[in-house]
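Is it possible to get an amino acid sequence alongside its tokenized fold?
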Amino acid sequence: MAGYSYLRPRKSVTLTALLGFLVVYSLLPLAWMFFSITKTQSELLSSFGLWFSGPFALVDNLQQVITHDDGIFVRWFLNTIVYVVVGAGGATLLATAAGYGLAKYRFRGRGAVFATILGAIAVPGTALAVPTFLLFSQVGLTNTMWAIILPSLVSPFGLYLMWVFSAEAVPTEILEAARVDGSGEWRTFFTISLRLLAPGIVTVALFAIVATWNNYFLPLIMLNDPDLYPLTLGLYQWLADASGIGAQPVFNLVITGSFLTIVPIVIAFLLLQRYWQSGLSAGGVKA
């Protein structure tokens, strides 16, 4: 248009270099893992880490991971699935219901609940691990799956996200119209509100899934039965067993097992990416 000049955004060399460094810093460990899972134990320790070396041992490493120690890796994988489905799934459901209720209903003490949630977000999970262990030991829940599942059900950050998202994503007019038509609160929640909350639910679910899948410290202090270990603790046990005096090193199996551990999370992010992005951006623009 006449009278107007298009100004291109100025490029910052420093910012570009910093972002490039962060990209390399983030991808370098993944590249090292990609090359390492193709090597034998001897080649892993004697070759350059960022390139192939020796015979291509990926298939053999995968077979050894599945069969090593009577196939306990499969048991650890199934345990992790249980912890994620029950723990992260339950946390998502509770956060959704509680966040929706706090956003759409007015009741006495609502401000105190909000302050409590913000305070809970500020407390790191590791600070609560030991008190939780002492509490569970009194009721006999240590060294059981419930010792991992029950703490995973509590997600103050997820509740806060659903509270904020519900306030914008579910118009009050729709709820009032449903009440006029005779729909009960639970029916309205499950048939109408959940569909509108889908992007936020996926966002909270991804956070809960990643937190539960990568949970290490809580299982470390709660469990002593290897048959109950999640993948994180099981791989650490392999690493510890391979580092002792006279132990047989199985670092190639630890690295291959780590690769298998991150594959489901990557798949989940790729499949749910579009819902996750829309959930993060919802409410950012006013009509």
